[in-house]
């Protein structure tokens, strides 16, 4: 690791010291996001690699190789003190690790402890605060499935931050020095913030799976349907970020075409009522989005809303073919691949 030129107490935009004065970083839980963040901080000279604590020593060793240094250990007792602690465990273990760290006697006044979760507030680290440390959470809005790629593409990543002001001052500046764009989150609504990300990202593949299932039931091969949807899905995503959400919305609801919506729902209800229920929930939001533009006559929107809100009819005799289910969806996804 090469320190930047200048004083050994130089700081990353008034954040963490750079070079020989950089704080030792201990990592608890060597998941992919934690590896990426630790690598970036250490590679840029904003931290020096310390202990990498993981129940599986092989994983800790792999993390040390990825980070570029550090001591792979199994327990906190082997970790030693550090000025900077990153808890990189799954969400449901963060609180447990915070209690263990606070009880370990390793924390000193002035230390910083942070985690990377988007759903769990920094307050889960309160035991560490009681032991003298400042606590925070920094959530990179990023896909970490390929850690090496995440390192290369980290610049420009948005990072949601909340926690103690004393911890945030240094951490936000450090992440900005890595090229991130930081913003603040209201911790009282943090799970809602993270849930919004699920709508924007996690559910996109789910919506595509629903679309493919509809096409398959209508006799279109899955590979053909996926190829058919690719251009229009990409065009829609591009339009959202070029024009805005409401102008990018197309289809029958955007035109106030109540008749088409009614036919969609009738077919879905006949095939799989659960799919129809999902369509209704999304369609209600779509009507509100269209109304915000003021381009569709109110009576047409009212008629569309009435169709969406009408009680579902009991489905009649269903044509042969399986209904969509989680099991069937997974089986199709593994059996058929796009050509």
Key terms for this structure?
339 residues, alpha/beta, Rossmann fold, 2 domains, disordered N terminus
Helices and strands in order, then pairings?
Elements: E1 24-28, H1 32-43, E2 48-53, H2 57-67, E3 71-73, E4 84-87, H3 91-103, E5 112-115, H4 126-130, E6 134-140, H5 147-152, E7 158-163, H6 165-177, E8 181-184, H7 190-217, H8 222-243, H9 245-248, H10 252-255, H11 258-271, H12 273-291, H13 298-309, H14 326-335
Parallel strand pairs: 1-2, 1-4, 2-3, 4-5, 5-6, 7-8
Antiparallel strand pairs: 6-7
Explain this structure.
- Helices cover 51% and strands 12% of the residues.
- It has 14 helices and eight strands.
- It has helices at 32-43, 57-67, 91-103, 126-130, 147-152, 165-177, 190-217, 222-243, 245-248, 252-255, 258-271, 273-291, 298-309, 326-335, and strands at 24-28, 48-53, 71-73, 84-87, 112-115, 134-140, 158-163, 181-184.
- α1 (32-43) packs parallel to α2 (57-67), α11 runs antiparallel to α12 and α12 runs antiparallel to α13 (298-309).
- The radius of gyration is 25 Å and the shape is elongated.
């Amino acid at each position: 690791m090469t320190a930047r030129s200048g004083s050994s107490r130089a700081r990353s935009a008034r954040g963490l010291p750079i070079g020989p004065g950089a704080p030792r970083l201990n990592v608890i839980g060597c998941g992919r996001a934690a590896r990426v963040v630790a690598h970036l901080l250490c590679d840029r000279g904003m931290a020096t690699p310390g202990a990498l604590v993981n129940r599986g020593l092989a994983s800790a060793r792999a993390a040390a190789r990825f980070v570029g240094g550090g001591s792979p250990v199994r327990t906190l007792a082997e970790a030693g003190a550090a000025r900077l602690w990153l808890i990189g465990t799954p969400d449901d273990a963060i609180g447990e690790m915070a209690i263990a760290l606070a009880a370990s006697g390793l924390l000193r006044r002035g230390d910083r402890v942070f985690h990377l979760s988007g759903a769990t507030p920094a307050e889960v680290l309160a035991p560490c605060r009681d032991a003298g440390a400042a606590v925070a959470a920094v959530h990179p809005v990023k896909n970490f499935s390929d850690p090496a790629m995440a390192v290369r593409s980290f610049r420009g990543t948005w990072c949601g931050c909340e926690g103690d002001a004393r911890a945030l001052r240094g951490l936000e500046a450090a992440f900005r020095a890595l090229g991130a764009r930081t913003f603040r989150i209201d911790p009282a609504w943090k799970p809602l913030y993270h849930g919004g990300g699920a709508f924007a990202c996690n559910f996109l593949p789910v919506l595509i799976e629903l679309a493919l299932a509809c096409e398959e039931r209508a006799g279109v091969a899955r590979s053909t349907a996926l190829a058919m949807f690719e251009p229009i899905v990409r065009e829609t995503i591009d339009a959202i970020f070029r024009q805005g959400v409401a102008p990018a919305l197309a289809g029958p609801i955007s035109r106030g075409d109540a008749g088409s919506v009614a036919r969609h729902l009738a077919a879905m209800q006949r095939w799989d009522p659960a799919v129809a229920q999902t369509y209704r929930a999304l369609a209600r939001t779509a009507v509100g989005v269209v109304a915000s533009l003021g381009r569709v006559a109110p009576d047409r929107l009212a008629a569309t809303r009435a169709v969406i809100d009408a009680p579902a009819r009991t489905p009649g005799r269903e044509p042969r073919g399986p209904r969509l289910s989680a099991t069937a969806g997974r089986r199709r996804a593994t059996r058929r691949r796009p050509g």
